[in-house]
Amino acid sequence: MKNFEILRQFTIASALLLICSLSGVQAQSKGKHQGPPPIPDAEQIEKMVSKLDEALSLSDEQSSKIEAIYTHHFKIVEDKRSVGRPSREEMQQLRVELDKDIKNILSAEQLPAYDKLIEEQKQQRGKGKGNKPQRYNS
C-alpha cells in the first residue's frame, strides 16, 4: 500500500513536470522569432518587387533589374549562411549594398517614396515582434 502511494505521487509529479515543461516550450515558440529569417524564394522575391512597384510605379525594366538585385543579394546571403552564421555587421553591410543597388535603379522622383517605404518597414518591424519579419527590404 505504501509503495502504491509513492508510485501515485511520483506519477502525479511527473505529469505536472511534463505539463509545465511543454507549456514553457509553447510559450517560447509564440514569442520572438529566433534566428535569422528564412531566405525568400523566387515567388516571395516577386511579391517584394510587386510591393515596390505598387509604391513606386516601377517600369518593367526597373522591376526586372530590382528582381535580379534581390535574387543576387539572397544568393549571397544563402552562401554566407552555408559556411556558418554571418556576423551582424556582415549582414548590415549586405543590406546597405542592397539598398544602394536599388537606389541606383530608381529615378530621382522615386527615391523619396522609397526612403519613406523603407522607414515605415523599419518602424513596423520594431512594433510587431510577432509579425513575419521583412528584414531584407531595408
Automatic annotation (TrEMBL):
Superkingdom: Bacteria
Parts of the chain that traverse the membrane: none
Domain Transcription regulator YsiA C-terminal: 43-124
Segments of this protein annotated with the region Disordered: 116-138
Organism the protein comes from: Carboxylicivirga marina
Keyword Cell cycle: no
InterPro entries the UniProt entry points to: Tscrpt_reg_YsiA_C (IPR013570)
Protein name: Transcription regulator YsiA C-terminal domain-containing protein
